[in-house]
Amino acid sequence: VNKSPLAGREGKFLTSRMIRDRLFKELDRNVALQVAETASADRYEVSGRGQLHLTVLIETMRREGFELEVGPPSVIYMENEETGKVEEPWEAVEVRVPEEYMG
């Protein structure tokens, strides 16, 4: 929800309920996105593939008429179960290639 001094000057979708419905609707087609509700009724934690991914979502919502306030992005750290160290998230990928294309 936009609580800045310029709140209500742009956009037609301003309430927390409208923003929540739009974010959860986005989950149906954007499989890399995660939305979590927080203790505050007007705040949501949105996780994605990076800053560009989130920027595209925010700009799309703005163009659709949503008005919202966005905090700075932050890296989500996870504890490695094997080493016990705190690390940035990463993904392991296995690519299988026929022998004729190896080399």
How would you describe what is shown here?
The chain has 103 residues and is of the alpha+beta class. The protein contains two helices and four strands; from the N terminus they run H-E-E-H-E-E. The protein has helices spanning 16-26, 51-63, and strands at residues 34-37, 44-47, 78-79, 86-87. The strands form two sheets. The protein has a two-stranded antiparallel ribbon with strand order 1-2. Strands 3-4 form a two-stranded antiparallel ribbon. A hairpin with a 6-residue loop joins strand 3 (78-79) and strand 4 (86-87). The longest helix has 13 residues, at 51-63. It is extended. The protein starts with 15 loop residues before the first helix and ends in a 16-residue tail after the last strand. The mean pLDDT is 83.
**What's the arrangement of strands in the largest beta sheet?**
1-2
Secondary-structure element series: HEEHEE
Average of pLDDT: 83
Distance between the termini: 53 Å
Tell me the radius of gyration: 19 Å
> What is the strand content?
5-15%
Global morphology: extended
Helix content estimate: 10-25%
Largest sheet: 2 strands, antiparallel
How many helical stretches? 2
Could you name the key traits of this structure?
single chain; 103 residues; alpha+beta; two-stranded antiparallel sheet; 2 helices; 4 strands
